[in-house]
Amino acid sequence: MKLLRAIGRHAIAIVLTAFVGGFLGATLVRMAPGFGVQESDLNAQLSAETRQALHRQDVAERNVLSYYWHYLGGLAHGDFGYSRSMDRPVSELLRDRLPETVESLAIGVAGGWLLGLALALPATWKRSPLYSATSSMISGIFVCIPSAVLALLFLVIGSPGRIAIALVVFPKVFRFSRNLLIKTYALPHVLTAKARGLSTVRILTHHVLPNIAGPMLALAGVTVSIAFGAAIPVEVVCDSPGLGQLAWKAALARDVPLLVNLTLIIALVTVLANSFSDLLAPTATRDMV
Questions:
Q1: How far apart are the C-alpha atoms of 90 and 86, rounded to whole Å?
Q2: Environment class of residue 161 by beta-carbon count within 10 Å: exposed (0-12), middle (13-18) or buried (19+)?
Q3: Rounded to whole angstroms, how far apart are CA atoms 48 and 149?
Q4: In degrees rounded to 5, what are phi and psi of residue 229?
Q5: Using one digit for the tens of pLDDT, what is the confidence trace for 170-211?
Q6: Predicted TM-score of the model (pTM)
Q7: How far is it, in rounded angstroms, from Cα 14 to Cα 38?
Q8: At what angle do helices 90-126 and 129-144 cross, to 10 degrees?
Q9: Is the dihedral of CA 101, 103, 106, 111 positive or negative?
């Protein structure tokens, strides 16, 4: 019953977050400098009547409450709106761009986890001050470098920019897993297994991994949210045809229908990942006792 109530609370939070996030996104676009100005205003070849006709198309978007109400009504019927800057339905744009971003997220999350665990496990086994200090320093360096700067560095050297997402994720995985592994290896049943002469691999697979599965799954939700946030500037810098690049172009064009949908997607991914971690947190705490 407690789990069902927790799921219900998170479901309500997800719906409210998405609703408020989309509304705030539509509102902020109207507050941005230059809203209502079109490229057609700078085209001297167009007549005044043509410019006025184009501006009349913006009337429905100027009242944010009216626009958002009609947007939600269309969304309930599967209508995501129409992007005038791209001259295509928003649903088509999202369908075309989503696979690129999903692939970037998969590579970034998987690479970040592999690198983080590859550094965390030796730090737990060896317990060498030099190795611990070196690995911590490497992790700290990548915490300080913005994802856009990392993407630019990889672009300059001709390497895939998606690696930058992995380098943004890996410090979080390394620090959390290292501390968790050190705590787990100090538990009485793990120390007993060591005293009986069990191999390192057997101790890891039979006594350590089952005990840290809950916390690590909770961390997985957090890393997806981190990777999604890093993917936006990385795709812009590397000119990857994903949602990040689409969001950048929509912001430059002040494309309200496209920006509202992208805001909803970002809000939903973030809150779903955080809710997943929160739901696993109580189970993770019980497993560590």
A1: 9
A2: buried
A3: 44
A4: -65, -35
A5: 999 999 999 888 888 888 888 888 888 888 888 888 888 888
A6: 0.76
A7: 35
A8: 160
A9: negative
What is the DSSP track for the chain? -HHHHHHHHHHHHHHHHHHHHHHHHHHHHHHSTTTT--GGGG-TTS-HHHHHHHHHTTHHHHSHHHHHHHHHHHHHTT---EETTTTEEHHHHHHHHHHHHHHHHHHHHHHHHHHHHHHHHHHHHH--HHHHHHHHHHHHHHHHS-HHHHHHHHHHHT--THHHHHHHHHHHHHHHHHHHHHHHHTSHHHHHHHHTT--HHHHIIIIIHHHHHHHHHHHHHHHHHHHHHHHHHHHHHHT-SSHHHHHHHHHHHT-HHHHHHHHHHHHHHHHHHHHHHHHHHHHHHHHH-
